[in-house]
Amino acid sequence: MSRDELERCSPSRKDGINHLRETHLRYSYCAFLQNLGIQLNLPQTTIGTAMVLCHRFLFADLMLLIATAALFLAAKSEETPCPLNTVLRVSWEICENIILLFSMFTPYCEYAFGDWFEQYRESVIGAEHMILTTLNFELDVQHPYTPLKSVLHKLGLSQSVLLNLALNLINEGLRSSLWLQFKPHHIAAGAAFLAAQFLNLDLAYYQGIWHEFQTTPSILQDVVQQLSEIL
């Protein structure tokens, strides 16, 4: 799906949420997920998968509850499982305002101020089921990390500043809808190109690099432009 189609046809439009508000929502739950994942000592790939699941689902209401459920799902999907009670405890601690957290799961619970932990647990399980059914149990997420490392390794750049910067750019890109528009190797190519620009490195020296990334000039330009807008 193209960026224009995403902006025009997003289900959020039916809920009265414009593109700017939707972008803010993406940034908000991605920041929450990054914080939660780090505190749970989960790999960046798992955190990224949770973000992409949220992008696919994109439910404005109960945003942090959905994000918590998405991370729990992603941890299982990426074979880095984390006990649900641990996820709940840390996510609860991140939400400084307890009233906000109660308001997140009130629609799932008849008595929000009873046994809060059990109610919160049931709410996350309910959100997990909602994500699974909405996405038709399609939890597979392919990330650009592998194609980026593979191509740069072939070019002798596997231990370079370029690789580290490109990886950071990919992580920044997770806050956007790039994963809904492009294949992983396209995003990897865009991150490598933009990183090279920052480092004043001419990748044209490495013949066939864009062929290795299986990326056309137009796709490369589009990815680079959208990555640049995030920074």
From TrEMBL:
The chain crosses the membrane at residues 57-75. It comes from the Eukaryota. Gene3D superfamilies: Cyclin-like. Pfam families: Cyclin_N (PF00134). Keywords: Cyclin, Membrane, Transmembrane, Transmembrane helix. GO terms for molecular function: cyclin-dependent protein serine/threonine kinase regulator activity. One of its GO terms (biological process) is regulation of transcription by RNA polymerase II. Residues 31-133, 146-229 form the Cyclin-like domain. InterPro entries: Cyclin-like_dom (IPR013763), Cyclin-like_sf (IPR036915), Cyclin/Ssn8 (IPR043198), Cyclin_N (IPR006671). Belongs to the cyclin family. PANTHER family: CYCLIN. This is Cyclin-like domain-containing protein.
